[in-house]
Amino acid sequence: MRAAIPCVLTLLTAPAVFSQAPAARPEFEVASVKPSEPLTNGRVSVGVHIDGAMVRCTYFSLLNYLNMAYDVKDYQIVGPDWLGGAHFDIDAKRPEGVEGEKALRGMVASLLEDRFKLVIHRETRDLPAYALVVAKSGLKMKEVPPDPDVDTSKVDVNVTSGARGATVDLGGGATISYGLNKLEARKVNIPSILDSLSKFLDRPVVDETVLTGRYNFTLEYSVSELKTMVRDNGGDASQIPDFGGDQPSIFTSVEALGLKFEPRKAPVPVIVIDSIQKTPTAN
To answer: To bridge 273 with a disulfide, which of 35, 79, 124, 281 should be the other Cys (CB 3.0-4.6 Å)?
Structure first.
């Protein structure tokens, strides 16, 4: 497998680290933005690390930072094709006493506005969507009992990749591992499942399962679906090798879990990029 394979697999691994949109636009006390280091021996580490006032984001594209700042998926961003290209690292410090998801999102948005001269406006567009529902045959995923000893006081999401694929460590024992033709999830909740599934689909996925637990499961997908996902996210699909044999589609695999996609039309909020620079202003 060529060195570029782990890199394109990291396109799958943009988990939803936060869950709410910001109401204000606070600023980091200090912040550094610099281009990410290139791949070393075919390996790349992607992550969001928050410990106290310190925030570090590594190997994120502008598309990833827009996801983070405005709590939107890729299909909710209307902008230039190159947003998913170059990658940047952010090292920042939050002001004393300023905590919470809303504030952090606002700080990232302010940083994009200041350093990349980002200007946006918001719209709502009716888009084709899928509703994820529990199939009539019943749920077949294994629910994991809650762990009272899990520490949720810190956000520490890590993405690492190597020759065998990419793994997202969501903390608290929750992981999603991606290979060329399958993903394996452990202790994963429905929002994280939706985030993973939406990467392979050409439309939003709406949760209508009413499931609140965490689950273990394996989901297979075809190499053609993987290549489509990589192309749609600005990657080079030619780096992904073909392999023989029958390959289930992601729709078939989802049904094997006792779930089902149902086509819908849904109003979807989007952000429209009016202007943005490819490179940041100096630190």
So the answer is: 79
**Is the residue at 280 inside a domain?**
no
Whole-number Cα distances in Å, 7 to 131, 145, 156, 165: 30, 34, 21, 9
Instruction: Return the H-helix or E-strand segment holding 232.
Output: helix 223-232
The predicted-structure confidence for 53-84, as pLDDT tens digits, reads as follows 899 998 889 998 998 899 888 888 999 999 98
From CA 75, how far away is CA 127, in angstroms rounded? 10
The C-alpha atoms of residue 175 and residue 171 are separated, in whole angstroms, by: 7
Confidence of residue 103 (pLDDT cuts 50, 70, 90): confident
What is the per-residue burial (b if ≥16 Cβ within 10 Å, else e) of 35-55?
A: ebeeeeeeebebbbebeeeeb
Using CA atoms, how far residue 132 sits from 60, 137, 170, 208, 241, in Å, is 28, 14, 22, 6, 30
> By residue range, what is the domain housing residue 165?
4-275
15 has which bridge partners? none
Residue type, 216: N
How many angstroms separate the CA atoms of 77 and 111, rounded?
A: 18
Please report whether residue 155 resides in a domain.
yes
In a domain, 145, yes or no: yes
Domain count, the chain: 1
Task: For 155-200, write each residue's pLDDT tens digit.
Answer: 566 777 666 677 888 877 888 888 878 889 999 888 888 888 887 8
pLDDT tens-digit series, residues 219-236: 888 888 877 776 655 455
**C-alpha of 160 from chain center:** 14
- The answer to whether residue 281 is domain-embedded is no
Give the span between the Cα atoms of 172 and 155, in whole angstroms: 10
CA distance 75 to 52: 32
Mean pLDDT along residues 39-49: 65
